[in-house]
Amino acid sequence: LGPFSDIRLSRNGDLGVAVPELLDQGISVLVLADVGRLPDSSVAALTDWIEGGGMLVRFAGPRTAGGTDDLIPVTLRAGDRSLGGSLSWKQPQKLADFSTNSPFAGLKVPPEVTVNRQVLADPTADLPDLTWAMLEDGTPLVTADRLGRGTVVLFHVTADSAWSNLPLSGIFIDMLRRILAVSNTAEPSTQGTDAEAGTATQSILPPLRLLDGYGRFGSPAADVPPMTDLAFREASAGRKSPPGLYGNDDGFRALNLMRPDDELERLDFSPLEDIATLQPYPTNDTLDLRAAFFASAFGLLLLDAIAVILLAGGLSRLRMRQVTAGATILLILGSVFHTQRVQAQSSSDDLRALEASQETHLAYVLTGTPDVDDTSAAGLFGLSQFLAERTALEPGAPMGVDIARDELAFFSLLYWPIEPTAEKPDDKTMARIDTFMRNGGTILFDTRDHISAATTGFGTTPATLKLREILEDLDIPPLEPVPIDHVLTKAFYILDTFPGRYSTSPLWVESLEQRDATSERPVRAGDGVSPVMITGNDFAAAWAIDSTGSFLFPTIPDDPVQRDYAFRAGVNMVMYSLTGNYKADQVHIPALLERLGQ
Description:
The chain is of the alpha/beta class.
């Protein structure tokens, strides 16, 4: 899009902050790549922006398949559809010809573009009217719907080549240019300067389609000159600059008959003189009594206060002085205490940030329940000792984290024991958690209840219900139990199970599609680390030790081998969160060495 438009990128990873910052810059089109659920504050701001004329373009992906917010043009089915896999009867689908009602009409569909994965829309009566592009089997590829004066567009594939080769084709650029063409063009910037001429750079806006004196909208006449963007902002509709559209097919601006500051003048009847009789329009005049009523109420309040003081015997001059002196002392002490408290809080935050950044620390979420927090601290202390003995990592002391206040960016892995009686975090806190996971952090949710849950998986225990309540507002990708060839199974130890105090719960991670039976499982963009892991095996209780090194809780069943595997599982999770797909990439070392030898 760079050659055809002005690109604005946000450097803030928090969607609750990045989206309003971009909207304040006066953008015309906002593009989101696989963002399943937006924060509520961003949804409200985007809704107002779209209703005012903005265009939101979204791309699907694993997060979108796992659930999305309301800013989508069609209702999506849960999950995604895979084409051309070993367990699929369908082959990768090609693009169908664009309909005449689509903004992409007239574009030639290349035969080499195929789609092997997509999110599906629920079939409804108005789905054909909302479809801009579809596949040969009739399923939508691009859908769009109006929202106020703006539009919401959804590509049912990813913005990269993970689900299709559409982004690698030339038609992808043409489709994006068509989307820009139907969007509302933003006001041009006047801050740029020509380095050679030393003057402000201006774009030329040729006449595109104009209105004539009879209200007909058509091609411009040959004698209508183009205008610069600066002249366009000052121009008014007239014979030399007729009203209409100025610009080109990729972006144009409208010159209206009336300017925003124009006013309608009253009709002058003076030439009629005595021929006509003028009468005022009948109205019911009202008298505003609010000021009088408020003044009367305030006066009555003063009289009532005076009466109460007199009935109480009045206040002596000495008592008045004592009260005044006491109030002054309290105000001074209060201001001093508040200043010291603010300075102490700031100093405490700085010391904590310094401590967290000097060493690698394992962190756990403070639930407010002393027994649970003590178990988490003792468990991560035991795991830290095991890591120092068995690996090259020597972590510092575990740190408790207040997710509503403390900075989370210092930690790669956050252990969160689910406490059923704890309050659900507010929207601001959930936005901080979502930003932490989106920027590479991993959270290990532990319901600690699998001994009492159903044998077929997570049941309806209070901890599980609380976990569902927390996750419903987060942008969580689809999950699956750890497969046998996942990086977690070989990050440090070779494992096929991940027990804790209990050994019956699976460890859930982000679902990754399998390409074929002989290849490694693919990893997502970035470090390949799942942003969320869920278990019910109570890891902290299995790791927990006291100052003498004695275990605080027995495993169920009481098995030393199970405890040793619990520690090994913890080591793999820590190494996985720190190194990402490093272990998966080791399979390419023989090929690289052979290439270097040649």
